[in-house]
Hints:
By secondary structure, the protein is an alpha/beta fold. It has helices spanning about 1-15, 20-30, 45-55, 70-75, 95-100, 120-140, 150-165, 180-195, 230-240, 240-250, 255-275, 320-344; strands at about 35-40, 60-65, 85-90, 105, 145, 175, 205, 215, 280-285, 295-305, 305-310.
Amino acid sequence: xxxxxxxxxxxxxxxxxxxxxxxxxxxxxxxxxxxxxxxxxxxxxxxxxxxxxxxxxxxxxxxxxxxxxxxxxxxxxxxxxxxxxxxxxxxxxxxxxxxxxxxxxxxxxxxxxxxxxxxxxxxxxxxxxxxxxxxxxxxxxxxxxxxxxxxxxxxxxxxxxxxxxxxxxxxxxxxxxxxxxxxxxxxxxxxxxxxxxxxxxxxxxxxxxxxxxxxxxxxxxxxxxxxxxxxxxxxxxxxxxxxxxxxxxxxxxxxxxxxxxxxxxxxxxxxxxxxxxxxxxxxxxxxxxxxxxxxxxxxxxxxxxxxxxxxxxxxxxxxxxxxxxxxxxxxxxxxxxxxxxxxx
Length: 344
């Protein structure tokens, strides 16, 4: 999927006849699709806005933030690809940004800094997410919502409760974006297995924080005979990937670039699903009956209504079974925290 997205971007932006393609694209081949990015002027948001501008499936790109959005929108709008870009700033313009959106991506909120716990993050970001979701329920209740704002294990349940209260909740249309965990797992696995990273696939299940992230290296392809010690180390590195970047940036930011890339990959999958492309499968944190928990990340088949099918976990190694039982109490607590916040 990643390669096909990059190929389509490349062909659209570098082909000698790209101006012809751009002019005729919407009417001849691909439906009109509006994507709204909420938090577009932030660390993730700016890079994500750039990547969505490069996606030929997007015809209308709405960039929203509380400040500085006109500049980001002007900058991104100069890129010679299909989509028209409009920037929106302040609460007063949020409704216009959302109106008619097919996909809404939410990277809004504060990033994690060294020493910050996910509780610290929750206290700030929960209120931001709640307000944005109230606006989504009002202005584009049928949009696919891609939640990037952390902690995802709590912000997705917050969104669900807000939509339930508004009478617009459709579990098929709400996604926690866990794609960065998959991106990391693929990268780290490829390095140890000595295989081309473009050919690697690794399902990642559970949640999107610390030990709730469970990469299923026993199901990784291509197969490699890695030792138990290596699998344990790869699992820990995948779980601690965010902290690794926060520490490396030494207080100057978090995983903004890789998260923007992962967010763009997942949004592309959602757009392909909406457009009827068959067998689009990505991991995502969604309402689920895969375990006893109400939300859980696993592989999901995407289609014209969002989630077409939540796929099961498949066979797990003993190490993965143990990891699954260990993550459940923490994930349960994070989900309940989000629900409690939204229903107070």
